[in-house]
Design goal:
A hairpin with an 8-residue loop joins strand 5 (about 70-75) and strand 6 (about 85-90). Strands 1, 2, 3, 4, 5, 6, 7 and 8 form an eight-stranded antiparallel β-sheet that branches. The protein has a single domain, classed as Galactose-binding domain-like (Jelly Rolls, Sandwich). About 0% of the residues lie in helices and about 55% in strands. It has about 140 residues and is mainly β. The chain has strands at about 5, 15, 40, 45-65, 70-75, 85-90, 100-120, 130-140. The two termini are about 15 Å apart. It comes from Diacronema lutheri (Unicellular marine alga). This is F5/8 type C domain-containing protein.
Length: about 140
């Protein structure tokens, strides 16, 4: 069974973020509401760590965003975030010219607890992440 492990509804949480705005906090990236989003400041790189409710296997990362130019994805298997393995090397996303970007990345994460998205560059000074979906299954 495949489930969105990142969603707050399923116990996921936005644990760490390098930017925080009161109107657009990191939690908005996983709240399941397409009208909300996490917004970054005007500097790069930016990072967002999503903690899963249990050790999980993740097969796909789906991302809806605006303005991301280059991104990488990393996974950490330990209970507390520590060393991360790269599961998607730095990858360029096509310019959406201010419109929504929808990307699906096929990855292989086994027994992961934390997933870190690193936004290396944007097409503009700010980027927005509307939704992060981590499709997979809990192992515990």
């Amino acid at each position: 069974m495949s489930d969105n492990l990142a969603s707050a509804e399923n116990g996921g949480q936005a644990l760490i973020a390098t930017s925080w705005d009161q109107a657009h906090p990191p939690e908005h990236a996983i709240d399941g509401d397409d009208a909300t989003f996490w917004v970054t400041t005007g500097m790069f790189p930016q990072e967002l760590v999503v903690t899963l409710p249990a050790s999980s296997a993740v097969a796909r990362v789906m991302l809806r965003s605006v303005g991301i130019r280059r991104i990488s994805i990393h996974a950490c298997p330990t209970e507390q975030p520590g060393a991360y393995d790269t599961v998607l090397p730095e990858t360029e996303i096509a310019d959406g010219a201010g419109s929504r970007q929808s990307e699906v990345f096929t990855v292989k994460m086994e027994a992961v607890r934390h997933v870190k998205l690193v936004i290396h560059a944007g097409w503009d000074h700010f980027v927005a992440v509307n939704d992060i979906r981590l499709d997979g299954r809990k192992l515990d």
